[in-house]
């Protein structure tokens, strides 16, 4: 007899949504426990520096969750509303809208509210528990173990299903031993080192490419944020979440190229300083930011784990590497996956099959809803990371058509209709190389999207599917290495 029906390891964003979803779909008929290492007065902390995030999420993703599991996000966890995200080229001459209307969240307040709502839905919590591994019975995961930091004693709890929502560096996924389908480790090149400040400021020059109270701004620039981007996300008329992300090896190359020795933190401080619209910036001392005003953290930018289920075990959120490869947005996919995983776990428990086979539907439903596009975006991201600022500016100005912008705004890989137009004049060898690269990623994206639409219905088909996936990815990566400038 298990202690619980479902254990959610990690009570962050993805974990609490998954718990609410299990509660909703079982009509509070299942025993659910959320376990987190944070203290109960600081729930869902990513690290000692806080809930480090850009705080932006699309309205569409929040609505996806709300309509299905009837959890409503309102003020004060929604701190500010925006009309969309705007990405600017390095020369600032071209901008592309992303994602549509959205919200700027308060990530310190959100988990407090999430926990109140989750408790009211009949879910139990255990705080200050550092989970270190899984408990197995034969080939089935039947629980979790770790240390109770309150009493410094060993901790163990059992359940029919364990949902791993412990974030990107998950120790549970890293050590899983009852599956060969689930990937355990992330490639360092698929990780962005990021950081940000939450700040108040006085008005500087009016420049909507630097700060816009209605839009989240993204700056693509290989000198400012090599292999990533800088962001200026409004939290009010004079309040901002400002930061950037880089790929570490590309930062080293950039430092060599410019004869500098910048780190993520020094780049962020320079980025704040050079912003002409922001005068006298200072870290927020608001009570609702006091544990969260500045910090650095890692985020993955790859496709989700090729297989997110094992016997008695599933992954959700950053532990499944869900943040979108192009912009590292992980809240949206966590909302979608958290909702779906709850439904699939309840169905598996009710049908009496919590093996890999019984839980498989979660893989399939997430891929159909969201995950079908991520491998194509991973390839596209790798191409963008090879480009110079001049190539990015030229490409954004000349190669994007209206349909492409529409695809990007829906989070899809664009078709680059202009690049394939016969007779289009392309100036410069580097831009011809870029056009060739874009044609290539478009073609690979079509292959990958089609392949994900054939994601197997049962575990039996997985090995063949995975072999073909890796064949396409290996070919793509080999070709992309030729584009490196
Ligand atoms: C700088 C930065 C900016 C970002 N900006 C955005 C953005 O603007 N929009 C967006 O959509 N996404 C953004 N993201 C990504 C987003 O923050 C994540 O995708 C999201 O927080 C993932 O939630 P999660 O619940 O999966 O993981 P986490 O938030 O990491 O939560 C994991 C939880 O598990 C707990 N835990 C971890 N290990 C253990 C353990 N061993 N034992 C017990 N408990 C444990 C932690 O305490 C925590 O509560 C950003 C990320 C970073 C780093």
UniProtKB/TrEMBL annotation:
Domain (Digeranylgeranylglycerophospholipid reductase catalytic) ranges: 210-255
GO terms classed as biological process: phospholipid biosynthetic process
Family annotation (Pfam families): FAD_oxidored, GGR_cat
InterPro entries: FAD/NAD-bd_sf (IPR036188), Geranylgeranyl_reductase (IPR050407), GGR_cat (IPR054715)
PANTHER family recorded: DIGERANYLGERANYLGLYCEROPHOSPHOLIPID REDUCTASE, GERANYLGERANYL DIPHOSPHATE REDUCTASE
Source species, domain of life: Archaea
Assigned keywords, A-Z: FAD, Flavoprotein, Lipid biosynthesis, Lipid metabolism, Oxidoreductase, Phospholipid biosynthesis, Phospholipid metabolism
An example Gene Ontology molecular-function term: oxidoreductase activity
Protein name: Digeranylgeranylglycerophospholipid reductase catalytic domain-containing protein
């Amino acid at each position: 007899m298990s202690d619980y029906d479902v254990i959610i390891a990690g009570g962050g964003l993805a974990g609490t949504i998954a718990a609410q979803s299990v509660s909703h779909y079982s009509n509070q008929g299942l025993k659910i426990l959320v376990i987190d290492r944070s203290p109960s007065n600081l729930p869902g902390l990513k690290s000692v520096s806080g809930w480090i995030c850009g705080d932006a999420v699309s309205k569409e993703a929040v609505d996806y969750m709300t309509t299905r599991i009837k959890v409503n996000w309102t003020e004060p966890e929604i701190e500010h509303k925006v009309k969309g995200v705007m990405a600017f080229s390095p020369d600032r001459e071209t901008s592309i809208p992303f994602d549509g209307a959205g919200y700027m969240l308060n990530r310190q307040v959100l988990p407090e509210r999430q926990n109140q709502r989750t408790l009211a839905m009949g879910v139990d919590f255990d705080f200050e528990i550092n989970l270190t591994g899984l408990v197995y019975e034969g080939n089935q995961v039947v629980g979790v173990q770790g240390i109770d930091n309150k009493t410094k004693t060993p901790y163990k709890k059992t359940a029919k299903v364990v949902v791993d929502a412990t974030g990107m560096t998950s120790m549970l996924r890293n050590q899983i031993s009852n599956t060969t389908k689930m990937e355990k480790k992330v490639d360092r090149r698929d990780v962005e080192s990021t950081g940000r400040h939450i700040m108040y400021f006085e008005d500087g020059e009016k420049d909507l490419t630097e700060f816009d109270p209605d839009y989240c701004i993204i700056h693509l620039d290989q000198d400012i944020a090599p292999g990533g981007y800088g962001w200026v996300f409004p939290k009010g008329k004079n309040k901002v979440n400002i930061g950037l992300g880089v790929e570490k090896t590309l930062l080293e190359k950039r430092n060599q190229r410019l004869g500098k020795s910048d780190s993520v933190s020094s780049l962020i401080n320079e980025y704040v300083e050079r912003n002409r619209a922001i005068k006298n910036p200072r870290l927020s001392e608001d009570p609702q930011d006091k544990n969260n005003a500045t910090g650095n953290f890692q985020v993955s930018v790859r496709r989700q784990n090729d297989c997110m289920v094992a016997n008695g075990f599933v992954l959700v959120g950053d532990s499944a590497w869900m943040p979108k490869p192009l912009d590292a947005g992980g809240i949206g996919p966590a909302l979608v996956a958290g909702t779906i995983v709850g439904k699939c776990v309840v169905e598996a428990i009710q049908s009496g099959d919590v093996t890999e086979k019984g839980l498989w539907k979660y893989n399939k439903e997430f891929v159909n809803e969201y995950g079908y596009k991520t491998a194509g975006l991973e390839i596209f991201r790798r191409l963008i990371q090879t480009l110079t600022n001049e190539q990015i500016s030229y490409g954004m100005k000349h190669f994007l058509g209206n349909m492409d912008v529409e695809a990007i705004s829906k989070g899809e890989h664009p078709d680059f209709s202009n690049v394939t137009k016969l007779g289009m004049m392309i100036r410069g060898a580097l831009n011809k190389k870029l056009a060739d690269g874009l044609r290539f990623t478009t073609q690979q994206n079509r292959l990958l999207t089609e392949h994900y639409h054939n994601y197997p219905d049962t575990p039996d088909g997985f090995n063949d599917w995975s072999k073909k996936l890796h064949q396409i990815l290996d070919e793509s990566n080999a070709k992309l290495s030729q584009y490196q400038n």
